[in-house]
Amino acid sequence: MKSVKDVMTSGVRTLNPRDTVALAAQAMEELDIGAVPVCDGQRIVGMVTDRDIVVRGVAQELPASTPLEAVMSAEVEWVFEDEDVDQVAAKMQQRQIRRLPVVDRDKRLVGILSLGDLAAKGHAKEAGHALADISEPARPTRSGQSAASGPAGGGETH
């Protein structure tokens, strides 16, 4: 049995809930990543993604100095480092999750497990199945379009 610890990315950059949206965006750009765990000490209290910044920050016209706790996702799925990687891959597929924080048995953050980790470290089949389910076309509701939609949802025309 291969455990999550065998394939996860360790040495993960974290931010504090009081750090700013601008700092998170800068970290994502610098590291070429789309999500950063938000921790209070070594305990994970949320995740902030590039999508969180755009949808909960930019779209709401919040300043770049807004603390992460205002835009982060506080309900975070996570896994233990000693869990079976095949079972975790199935969990990712079922719940349509691209990345999961990894914690030790004291619930301290020790890494991140992504679909890329699975694919690069011998679990390409599982990663492919998970990605196929995650990437199923969404059926968004278009009835309540924002003012930014303009004609045909493409923005305002002049």
TrEMBL record:
<protein>
    <submittedName>
        <fullName>CBS domain-containing protein</fullName>
    </submittedName>
</protein>
<feature type="domain" description="CBS">
    <location>
        <begin position="8"/>
        <end position="65"/>
    </location>
</feature>
<dbReference type="InterPro" id="IPR051257">
    <property type="entry name" value="Diverse_CBS-Domain"/>
</dbReference>
<dbReference type="InterPro" id="IPR000644">
    <property type="entry name" value="CBS_dom"/>
</dbReference>
<dbReference type="Pfam" id="PF00571">
    <property type="entry name" value="CBS"/>
</dbReference>
<dbReference type="InterPro" id="IPR046342">
    <property type="entry name" value="CBS_dom_sf"/>
</dbReference>
<feature type="domain" description="CBS">
    <location>
        <begin position="72"/>
        <end position="131"/>
    </location>
</feature>
<feature type="region of interest" description="Disordered">
    <location>
        <begin position="129"/>
        <end position="158"/>
    </location>
</feature>
<keyword id="KW-0129">CBS domain</keyword>
